[in-house]
């Protein structure tokens, strides 16, 4: 009786190795096909991306609004048409004489590769300003110039007030930079 049960038990487990080998082979073939389809999708996607037209935002050609302004201007004076277009595009700039940086410090961030500047911006104008652009010049310990980095601050500063900006990331900076001097370049009326 023991011999009979032993044969039945072994017969049941005898085919497991073959079935397991068949399952592993099917899974590896399915994985290989899936990987092949993924690779084909990536290649087709990159090909389509390369065929897309370039964006119009960075081109040097005049846009539709510029051409419309030129076409509506009198045709006998092209210089007047160009000045009308430039006046329409120029925002109201703020007076930089009454806008200044009263205090500033800087430190390194991002594993020592980025410059983080803390400064206080004073606005003595009779109007609020926004889109303030600053440029920071970085120098070595001996005073020789290394690099300049600029940043536009989208916040607005109210009239006759001051605002402190803490740890503003200016950009990547040379490892030899020891000093920074930031100055204002431009600002717009809010």
Describe the structure.
The chain crosses the membrane at residues 35-54. Keywords: Membrane, Transmembrane, Transmembrane helix. There is one protein chain. The protein is an alpha+beta fold and 190 residues long. The chain folds into 2 domains: 2-51; 96-189, Immunoglobulin-like (Sandwich). It has 4 helices and 6 strands, in the order H-H-H-H-E-E-E-E-E-E. It has helices at 2-14, 16-51, 64-72, 78-89; strands spanning 99-109, 114-123, 129-139, 145-153, 161-172, 179-189. The strands form 2 sheets. It has a 3-stranded antiparallel sheet with strand order 1-2-5, with no helix packed on it. Helix 3 (64-72) packs across helix 4. Residues 55-75 have low confidence and may be disordered.
Short description:
This protein is α+β, with helices and mostly antiparallel strands and 190 residues long. 37% of the residues lie in helices and 34% in strands. A hairpin with a 4-residue loop joins strand 1 and strand 2.
């Amino acid at each position: 009786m023991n011999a009979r049960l032993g044969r039945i038990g072994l017969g049941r487990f005898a085919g497991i190795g073959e079935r397991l080998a068949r399952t592993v082979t099917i899974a590896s073939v399915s994985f290989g096909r899936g990987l092949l389809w993924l690779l084909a999708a990536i290649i087709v996607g990159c090909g389509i991306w390369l065929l897309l037209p370039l964006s119009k935002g960075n081109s040097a050609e005049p846009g539709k609004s510029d051409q419309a302004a030129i076409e509506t201007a009198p045709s006998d004076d092209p210089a007047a048409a160009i000045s009308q277009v430039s006046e329409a595009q120029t925002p109201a700039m703020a007076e930089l004489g009454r806008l200044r940086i009263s205090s500033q410090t800087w430190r390194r961030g991002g594993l020592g590769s980025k410059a983080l500047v803390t400064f206080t911006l004073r606005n003595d104008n009779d109007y609020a300003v926004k889109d303030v652009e600053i440029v920071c010049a970085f120098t070595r310990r001996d005073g020789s110039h290394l690099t300049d980095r600029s940043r536009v601050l989208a916040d607005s500063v109210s009239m006759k007030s001051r605002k402190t900006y803490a740890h503003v990331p200016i950009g990547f900076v040379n490892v030899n930079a020891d000093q920074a001097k930031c100055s204002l370049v431009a600002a717009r009326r809010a």
